[in-house]
């Protein structure tokens, strides 16, 4: 009940800020935080380090704006070599033109998060991919959103954001050749690579 | 309706008046691009070898040279091109021999060898009066012969339209081969192509600086999609934007001082303005969905781009301060790759029709939606600098190749022929 009220309030605030009505006062007020109360506590560590705001879980996407989750620019490691990930990090798949995590994807990510937390010396790179339909430039952005969805979920499960890198290949690197759904469904994916 | 009718009559009378332009009597410019306008009949016979000149190194140089001009003029859509005069003529005058065909002007000329160089005397004659409209003498290296032919084609177009033609321009494009995509540059008609980048990586979304001296693009050469710039004159290669995440779809502002681009450094693909002088960033968009593929209005005031904030990708327009946002496309569930015409009156884009890409144009107010292609697999529209033609890529023959067409979808012409997939053409200024 209480959670519902908070959500309604947040929704209201966001729609007002989003539509620019409250922009003037929002600037003076405390920055709006896009978190459920329970996420607030969970995200404290991460937000403190990155200086940014944590995002909502995927479940709320569509109703809420996802908060920003800036990526630390000093974390760019040019020479880091990422190799095929372990059994614990299975490729996850998406619906057409969607970056929403499906239940199977969440299950895979939960397993991955557990393993990542147990294996502290590993960094992970999430590669977002698309099927060949649509245009390259849009698919690059869509692939990035797919990678960022998984990143956001791993962070929400307690994985240190500084260990998670993302890269989008758009439609440039299909897993399966072919020009119908039998290939496309394997190409709309996030792959995981790790680096020690 | 009456207004439109009057316009049609007006353009018809201009066609009759064009001879006046040729005689240099005034600044009457015909809008030959008006639909339904009769094409001007022009004769382009093979150039002859200058009698006193030593033999040319290239066997059929005179015919090859004329063929380039014929192709240029034919592609414009303004001319009906004839290679030879009528066989049934009784006149002694070489110009009058074209009259039975209704040919109004004739390109004639001669080529000569000048030691290490070649020279071309090019002239355009009016058939009726048998007077020379324009004459030009060009010299260059033997390899320059195509560029010289293009220059004279543009001169002819200038005489008829008041605007220099686009035959001297180039296209930057991507060639995909063995998992890599490298940037190549070719003449607008597909000849003289050469490879610009050798990164053994993926290059994407090339765009020319307004002065034509630089190219910006995204490359994965440093294991992240970063924006790089090649200075074609200085032969330098610089990384401009290397934030973590996406650095994609760079687009030069018309004054060349700013790039609009997509960055995901703040956790989501958003549009930014990047100041060339100091790398300063201004953020334009702020929402949790995709914002990408910016293209500038020719006055630099507005930017059209792609966003899926409504649920599916559509074209939006914002001003360069990131405010006054409006949605442009409403029909179709997938509209991407906007390209704002240098004339300002149209935005070309790709719409998926039954899952297949087709090229459309729309006015910046959202009216006048025009479908230009009908065979599927069409992407990446890019305008010619005069705003009359579009380059695009198409998979209509199985592999992806670069094609050109007029802004009404007519005159489709293939300009690359395999050797890998060819795509993402960017038309030079």
TrEMBL record, chain A:
Gene3D superfamilies: OmpA-like domain. Pfam families: OmpA (PF00691). Keywords: Cell cycle, Cell division, Cell outer membrane, Lipoprotein, Membrane, Palmitate, Signal. Residues 81-196 form the OmpA-like domain. It is a lipid-anchor. One of its GO terms (biological process) is cell division. It comes from the Bacteria. SUPFAM superfamilies: OmpA-like. PANTHER family: LIPOPROTEIN YIAD-RELATED, STATOR ELEMENT OF FLAGELLAR MOTOR COMPLEX. Belongs to the Pal lipoprotein family. This is Peptidoglycan-associated lipoprotein. It comes from Candidatus Abyssobacteria bacterium SURF_17.
UniProtKB/TrEMBL annotation, chain B:
Residues 30-132 form the TolB N-terminal domain. Its main location: periplasm. The keyword Thylakoid does not apply. It is found in: Periplasm. Gene3D superfamilies: TolB, C-terminal domain, TolB, N-terminal domain. GO terms for biological process: protein import. Keywords: Periplasm, Signal. The keyword Protein transport does not apply. GO terms for cellular component: periplasmic space. Belongs to the TolB family. This is Tol-Pal system beta propeller repeat protein TolB. It comes from Candidatus Abyssobacteria bacterium SURF_17.
């Amino acid at each position: 009940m209480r959670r519902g009220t908070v959500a309604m309030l947040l929704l209201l605030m966001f729609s007002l800020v989003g539509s620019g009505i409250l922009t003037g006062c929002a600037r003076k007020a405390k920055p709006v935080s896009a978190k459920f109360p329970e996420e607030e506590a969970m995200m404290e560590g991460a937000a403190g380090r990155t200086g940014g705001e944590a995002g909502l879980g995927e479940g709320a996407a569509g109703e809420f704006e996802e908060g920003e989750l800036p990526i630390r620019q000093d974390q760019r490691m040019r020479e880091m070599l990422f190799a095929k990930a372990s059994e614990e990090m299975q490729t996850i798949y998406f619906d057409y033109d969607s970056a929403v995590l499906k239940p199977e994807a969440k299950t895979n990510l939960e397993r991955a998060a557990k393993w990542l937390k147990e294996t502290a010396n590993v960094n992970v790179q999430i590669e977002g991919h698309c099927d060949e339909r649509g245009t390259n430039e849009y698919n690059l952005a869509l692939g990035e959103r797919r990678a960022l969805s998984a990143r956001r979920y791993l962070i929400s499960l307690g994985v240190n954001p500084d260990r998670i890198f993302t890269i989008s290949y758009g439609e440039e690197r299909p897993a399966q050749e072919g020009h119908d759904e039998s290939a496309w469904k394997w190409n709309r994916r996030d792959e995981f690579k790790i680096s020690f | 309706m009456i207004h439109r009718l009057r316009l049609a009559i007006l353009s018809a009378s201009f066609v009759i008046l064009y001879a006046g332009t040729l005689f240099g009597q005034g600044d009457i410019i015909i809008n030959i691009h008006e639909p339904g306008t009769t094409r001007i009949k022009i004769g382009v016979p093979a150039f002859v070898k200058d009698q006193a000149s030593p033999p040319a190194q290239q066997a059929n140089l005179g015919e090859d040279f004329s063929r380039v001009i014929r192709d240029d003029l034919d592609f414009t859509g303004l001319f009906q091109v004839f290679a030879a005069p009528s066989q049934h003529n009784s006149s002694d005058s070489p110009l009058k021999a074209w009259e039975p065909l209704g040919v109004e002007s004739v390109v004639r000329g001669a080529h000569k060898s000048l030691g290490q160089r070649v020279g071309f005397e090019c002239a355009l004659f009016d058939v009726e009066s048998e007077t020379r409209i324009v004459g030009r003498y060009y010299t260059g290296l033997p390899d320059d012969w195509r560029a010289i032919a293009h220059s004279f084609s543009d001169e002819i177009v200038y005489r008829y339209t008041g605007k220099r033609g686009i035959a001297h321009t180039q296209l930057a494009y991507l060639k995909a081969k063995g998992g890599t995509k490298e940037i190549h540059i070719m003449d607008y008609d597909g000849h003289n192509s050469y490879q610009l980048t050798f990164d053994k990586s993926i290059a994407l979304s090339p765009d020319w600086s307004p002065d034509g001296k630089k190219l910006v693009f995204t490359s994965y050469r440093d294991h992240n999609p970063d924006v790089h710039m090649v200075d074609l004159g200085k032969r330098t290669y610089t990384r401009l934007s290397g934030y973590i995440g996406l650095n994609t779809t760079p687009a030069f502002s018309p004054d060349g001082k700013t790039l609009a681009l997509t960055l995901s450094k703040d956790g989501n693909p958003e549009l930014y303005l990047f100041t060339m002088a100091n790398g300063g960033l201004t953020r334009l968009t702020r929402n949790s969905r995709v914002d990408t593929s910016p293209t500038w209005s020719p006055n630099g005031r507005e930017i059209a781009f792609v966003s899926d904030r409504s649920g599916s990708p559509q074209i939006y327009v914002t001003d360069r301060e990131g405010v006054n946002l409006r949605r442009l496309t409403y029909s179709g569930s997938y509209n991407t790759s906007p390209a704002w015409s240098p004339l300002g009156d149209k935005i070309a884009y790709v719409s998926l029709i039954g899952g297949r890409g087709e090229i459309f144009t729309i006015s910046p107010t959202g009216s006048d939606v025009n479908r230009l292609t009908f065979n599927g697999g069409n992407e990446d529209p890019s305008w010619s600098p005069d705003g009359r033609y579009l380059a695009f890529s198409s998979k209509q023959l199985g592999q992806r190749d670069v094609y050109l067409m007029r802004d009404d979808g007519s005159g489709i012409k293939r300009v690359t022929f395999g050797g890998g997939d060819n795509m993402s053409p960017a038309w030079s200024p």
